[in-house]
Amino acid sequence: MAEELKQLKLFSDVTAMLAPAKSLYEAGCCPCCLLRFLGEKDSQIYQKSAEELQAVALTLCSQPQGDVADGPTDSKCVNTDDIPCIACLGILQHGCSEEFLEKIQKKINEEGYKSQLFSLSLMTPIQLIVREHAVMLFLRQRFSDLYTGQSIEKVTSMKDVYKWRCGPRLKDKLNMEYHHQIESPFLIQLMFEHKETETECSFLISACPKVFPSNSSRKRKRDSEQGVLNRTSVARAISSLSESKFMSLVRCPPEKVDTMCRCEEITCYHEAVFVAGRYNKYSRTLSQTPWVVDGERRGKTSVSELICTRIQAMFMAQEYRFSSAGREDVDVRTLGRGRPFLVELIQPHVSDVPIDKMKLLQQEINSGTTDIAVRDLQVVSREESGKLKVGETEKTKSYSALVRVEKTIQPDDLKFLEEIKDLKLAQKTPIRVIHRRPLASRDRVIHNMSGEYIDSHHFTLHLKTQAGTYIKEFVHGDFGRTQPSLSTLMHMDTDILELDVESVDVDWPKTIDE
Ligand SMILES: [Zn+2]
C-alpha cells in the first residue's frame, strides 16, 4: 500500500474503505470531504496542501480493490478544485485557497485590527445539511457493512476541517496567535452563501408539514419561505423523514452543481476592552460627562471626554462608555489619589496595548489639559471591571468643604465636631437634583469630622463619609431636608462655598508605578 495511506485512520481499515473512497470521489467529493466521510479525524492530515490531499485522494481511489469489480479510477474522474464538491460546495476548496485567505488578510489589515489571538467562525448555507445527510444515506445504503451505525455526527465536521486548514495559515498572514480550541475575543466571521440554497431546501416545506405548518389564510410567499427555512427547521425536517422517504425526494449522493459557495461577508468582531484608572479634577467649571440642558451643550468639554477621546483613538474603538465610582458636581474638585473610573471600549480594533504604551497614553492625556489628571491607567479584564461597582455604598469618601458661618466663631467652637462619630443622616432628595432623581429619603453615615479655623466667619470642614452622602446638603441643611445638618449642629446658618473630594477610598484599580 502507498506510504501516504498508512497514516490514515478511517472508519475501518484502509483496504476496506477503498470502495467507498472511490464512490465518494466519483460522486464528486473534494479530497477533504472524501476523507471526512471515510472517518478521518486527524487534524494533521487535513493540514496538508491541496496538492498533497489531492494525491492522497487519487491514491486511495486508484488502489486495486479485491472484491469490487470496478477498475482503478481513470483520469476523467479526477476532481479538480474548480468543480464544486457535492458536500461542501467549495468551502473546503476555493474557501481554503491562498487567494481567499489573502482576501481575509487584506480586509483585516484595511480595518486596522490588531489582536494577540483570533478565532474563526463560519456561517454556511443550510443546504449543506441536506447534502451531507444525502451523502451519509448513500454510504449507508451502498456500503451497509461499513456504515451501519455511522451517522453524520461521527463524521468530522466541515467547520473543524476548515479551521484546521485555514487557521494556521491565517495565523502566519495576520501575525496573530491561533488555537483551534481557544476562543479569542477577536472573531473573524465568514459568511458563505450559495445561490441554490432555497431551491435545494424548499422541498422540505411540503414534505414536512409538521415542521412547516402551512399558512391557510394566504398562499405562502417567497419571502415567508425564506423565513421558515433556517438551520434548526431544516435539521428538524430532515430528522423527521424516514431514510426511504428522504431518498425518494433527494438524489443520494447529491447532484453536482455549477457554482461554488461565495463568501460575501467577512466580518470582524472584537469584544469590549476595559481601561481603568483614577482621575483628579482640578477645575470648578468642568462637568464629569457632557452637560446638555434642553438639547444645548454647556461647557466645551468634560472629564469623560478629556479622558476617553485619546483612549478611544488608541484602541480604535467604535464607541466608549464611561463610568466611575460616584461623581462630583461641576464646581467640585477631586484631589488626592483621585476617583476610580472605567472606560468600556466597544468594538475596538486594537486590543493589545502593552503597559509602556498605556503610560505614554496617560502622559498624553495629562499633557493635553490642566483641568484633570489621570493615573494608574491600565487595561483590566471584564471580570476585573465589575469591581468598580461592587460594594458601592460601603465605600467611604473624604471631603473638605469651605464653610461660611452666619455668626462669629472662635477656634474652640469647632472642637465639638471631632467628638461626633458615625453620625446618621436622613437625606431627602436634594432640591438641586430633584428634576433628575426620584423623590426619596436615604440614610447615610458621617464617620468623622473636624473643623479647621480660618477666620471668624470661615472654616474648613474635613469629613469622612459613606459613599453617596450629599455633602452640600449636610452643610446647609437643604431647607430642613437633611437631618441633622451642620447648621442644626452649630445652631446657626452655615453655607458651603467650595467642596473638594479628598479621597475615594476604593482599592481599585491597582496602583501602577509611575
Ligand atoms: Zn468538499
Automatic annotation (TrEMBL):
Residues 274-505 form the Pus10-like C-terminal domain. It is an enzyme of class 5 (isomerase). GO terms for molecular function: RNA binding; tRNA pseudouridine(55) synthase activity. GO terms for biological process: tRNA pseudouridine synthesis. Its EC number is 5.4.99.25. Keywords: Isomerase, tRNA processing. Residues 85-268 form the Pus10 N-terminal eukaryotes domain. InterPro entries: PsdUridine_synth_cat_dom_sf, Pus10-like, Pus10-like_C, Pus10_N_euk. It holds the Pfam family Pus10_C. Belongs to the pseudouridine synthase Pus10 family. This is tRNA pseudouridine(55) synthase. It comes from Branchiostoma belcheri.
